[in-house]
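Below is the record:
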Amino acid sequence: MILELDFWLMIVLIMFAILALEVKDLLAAVGVLTGYSFLIALLFSALGAPDVALTEAALGAALTGVLLLASLTFMNRNSKD
């Protein structure tokens, strides 16, 4: 059961990584990267590393997401494509 959960989490993580590379809007890219970090935290938790999962959720998703969103306020996020 846990092995199946890990497998599907890895498949979804790969899909999120590809989506983060392909998305054109910067706000959408920040959302996808924040979701990716939360999924990584979930994977760490499923693998039995709750301290690493909490650190990833706090720093990787929350703090980085907020800093990226704050930086988007200072730039034009429209794509030329």
